[in-house]
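Chapter summary example.
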Amino acid sequence: MLPEEIIIAPVVTEKSNNELQEGKYTFKVNKKATKIEIAKAVEKLFEVKVLKVNTMTVRGKSKRVGYHTGKTSDWKKAIVTIDTNPGEATYLAKGGKTTKISKKYKDSIEEFMGA
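The structure predicted for these 115 residues follows.
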């Protein structure tokens, strides 16, 4: 699946707005997407480093319009924790030399509130 097919929309609620300071963003995602696919899609779309992904299936509610009763559809919600302080990563290369790499990651998702 393409990243645009995995991440459907942001979920903007009072609780999700409070979690933004902790680096937790909530998205409505495709029901067939796995945690690994969600993490890769968020990293590719928003250029951030994903630390953790929690997913849950939200059950649809029973609704009634006049005499007719029905049910809203089930959907999948993902809470993605990103790295709010991306730094340089160091590792040992051949010969025991320490090598630093600094990938250009953002520390927040600016598009989250605009969508």
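To summarize the output: Residues 36 and 76 are 15 Å apart (CA to CA).
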